[in-house]
Structure formats: C-alpha cells, structure tokens
Amino acid sequence: MMDLFLSVLAALNEFSTTSSPIDFMLILRHGGLFLEGLINSFTLVALSFTLAALFALPMAVLKWGRVPVAMHAVSAFVYIFRGTPLLVQAYLIYYGLAQFDDLRDSIAWTVLKDPWWCVLIALTINSTAYQVEIYRGGLEAVPHGEIEATKAIGLGKLAALRHIIIPSALRRCFPMTGNEMIFLLHGSAIASTLTITDILGAGRQLNSEFYLAYEGFLAATLIYMTVIISLTKFLNFIEKGIMGHIQLTSPTPNVLP
Amino acid sequence: MNDLLNYLPLLLRGTGTTLMLGVGGLVLSLFLGMIGAWGKLGRSPIGRRLADFYTTGIRSVPDLCWLLLFYFGAQNLLNKIGTMTELWDGVQIPPFASGILTIGIVFGAYMTETFRGAFQSIPKGQFEAASAIGMTEFQSFRLITLPQLLGYALPSLGVNWMVLIKTTALVSIIGLQDVVFYGLSAGRVTRKPFLFFIALMGIYLLLTSASNVVLRKLERRYTVGRRIGQS
Fold first, then answer.
1. Which CATH number covers residue A166?
2. Residue A200: which of B64, B191, B205 has the nearest Cβ?
3. Are A166 and A140 contacting, i.e. CB atoms less than 8 angstroms apart?
4. How far A80 CA sits from the closest chain B CA (Å)?
5. Based on the structure, what is the number of domains in chain A?
6. Contacts of A207 in chain B (CB under 8 A)
7. Residue B168: Cβ within 10 Å count
8. What class has domain B2-230?
9. Contact B194 A221 (CB under 8 A)
10. Do B180 and A85 touch (CB under 8 A)?
11. Given CB 3.0 to 4.6 Å as the disulfide criterion, which of A37, A52, A140, B173 pairs with A128?
C-alpha cells in the first residue's frame, strides 16, 4: 500500500517537474511559505480594518452632525485619502518620511523603519477615509422617526447615539462595510512591493528563488480567489441574519468602493 | 521647491503616460463591460455562465496580482508556445500593453456590473411599448435602450473611472514610466522623497477632482429626460 502511494507520488512529481507546464509539486512543497503569507495578509487586513473602524466612526458622527470646523477637517481628510492611490500613500510613509533627519533620530523611527508597520499605517489611514463615508451614509439612512423617538423618551444626545442611532446606522451600511473589507484585502497586496511576505509576496519570493515566471503568482491568485469568495459568502450569510427585520435597500452607492 | 520645478517636466510626462493608460484601460473596459452585460442578460445559459465566471473570478483577486500574472505569465506562455510551434521566439510584451490589457480586463468586470445594473433600471414597460408599436429587438435597443443607458450607468461608471485612474499607479511596479515611477526616482535623486510623494498626491487629487467635475456635468446632461419627467 505504502509502496503504491510512494510510486504514485514519484510519478506525480516526475510529471510535475518535466511535462506539466506548471510545477505544482514545487508550489505544494512551499505550502509553509504561502501559509505565512496568508497569515500576514490576514493580520494586516484584520488589524487595519478594526483600527480604521475605531477612527472612522467618531469622524463620521462629526461629519453627520455637522459639527463646525471638525466636519471640514474630516471632509478634507476623506477627500485627500480617497482621491490618491494607496500605493502612493504607502510610499509616502515608507520612503517619504525618511527625508526628515529629526524623525530618523527619534523613537518613532523604530516603528517607521519597519515596512510592516508602514503598510499597516497606510492601510489604516486609507480605510479610515473610505469607512468615514460609509458610516456617514449609514447615519444619514437612519429614519428621522427613530431619532425623534429617542428625543421623545428623553434620551440624551450621547445615549441616543450609543444605543439607537449608531447600531441602526451600522446595520444599514453593513453591505458597504463588507465591500470595504474586500477592497482592503485587495489593497493589502501592495505590501509585497515593500518586501513583506503577504500572499502575493510569497508568490514573488517563490518565483525569484527558483527563477520561475508565473507559478508563484498563479498560486497567489488561487489563494486570493478562495479567500475572497469564501469571505463574500460569509458576509452575505451574516447580512441575511442581521438584516432580516429591515427591508434592505442597500444605501445608494455614491460612496466609492 | 527648486527641485520640484526641475523635475516638473518629467512628472508631467509621467502624468501623460498615466492618463493614456487610464483612457486606454477605460475604453477596453467599456467594451468588455458591454460584452459581459450582454452575456449576463442574454438568453444563452452558457453566455451567462461565462460572464459570471469572468466577473467573480476577476473581482476576487487583487489587481496587482493580475498585473504581475499577466505581465510575467503571459510573456512566458507566449514564448513557450513559440518554441513549441517554432513560429516565433523571444517575444516581448511591452509593459504599456500589459498595463492597458490588465486594467481593461480587470475593470471590464466592474463595468459589466455597471451596465447590467443600468440595463435593468430601464423600465420594462418601455420595451413592451417598443414591441407593441412593431419595433424589432435591434431597433428597440438602438432607439430606446442605448440613449438612456449612459444616464443610468454614469454614476457607477464614474466611480469605476476614479478607482481605475488610481489603479494605474500600480504599473510603476512593472517598470512603466508613469507619474509614480518618475516621482519615486526624482525623490531618490534629490533625497527629498517626501516632497515628491506629496507632489504625486497633489497630481492625483487634481486628476480625480477634474474627473468629478466632468462627471457631474455629463450626469446632468444625460439625465435631462428623467429629471423633467420626475418634476
């Protein structure tokens, strides 16, 4: 039995290295590299998405509530970081900040010289800008009656926001939030250009190590497909669960994806 | 400041490349999007399958990954076929062509959804009316659907264009001399990378803001009928 298995394996290996156009055994043998990439991509996206949500929600409330000055500052932030490519933002942080000698001598440099942190910061800033608009859209979609009801039962402004308005808004913009998570995963691929072993980075590393042209990229493509399609299915499943009671008309997509 | 002025001509040349890539990619993506939407809404189940496969497949992988796969992979594949059939050897796909192809194919998937949505926004009654007065299917497409399609598609088309022009920044990674490429090298030479990346952000902001203004104007123009009808 064992012999048979081994000979099949040997035949597969032989086929893979000689006649098959793609050496898939080589990819399988470097499964560990791709696992590392998967973990890196996942960590980057999960962390930056959460951090961005924490920053974006208060900013969205400021903009939605038309708080003077703060609202314009938020708008300017959103305008700048949604209107420029993520790649340039990441370069600005990773290469650009090195221009300042004072910064290079400070403690902050221990973080800023590390490409991983730079990518995390860039992804967080970028996603914050997009999430502000998403949450603002959600807040604006809360029916006026719900807000009046909070006043009628004598809730204070903060309590109303915390218990009624924000939960209602978050539920309403859930589909857009899910979209943003997927776009963030797309964006995280730029980490590979700053030498990080994310999913795409693992592919690049495999290619350069064995002088391959596309095997590594092909493997990365398949991994991204699997991850993103499963994530989409999962998000749709949750959406059905939390939206059952509202007739969902997704907020008008004038928010950039 | 002087450094910026010295490198301004190069940055402008790069911006030209960026715009050419963007417009080239846009044209290709509009074309593919129309075909995709036709497949999705058509009667043929095979066409629908293919179109679904195209949009889901493309949209579930980052653009950078497609770019690298097409650029390095397609070249290698072509050369392998070349040596096997002995028809050609050592073909080079220029990075510019790879860039436009990748951007066009990737955004074609997004445009497919745009056009599908736009087609479906046109009230059904209009097609019924068209066939009731004896128009053929093609006539109804040409005279009823097409003139209204742009108006319905524009908002989402505009969003896609904004994402597209920002995505062109990625082509600097395969060595294309777009605005990011020149900004990066100017920053390296002058040892003022921060200055040049800020300049790059300014250039992209100009491009996206200008696009916004044009899109608003177009939108106003192509929805005249609907706006009068509503008021």
1. 1.10.3720.10
2. B64
3. no
4. 7
5. 1
6. 72
7. 29
8. mainly alpha
9. no
10. yes
11. A52
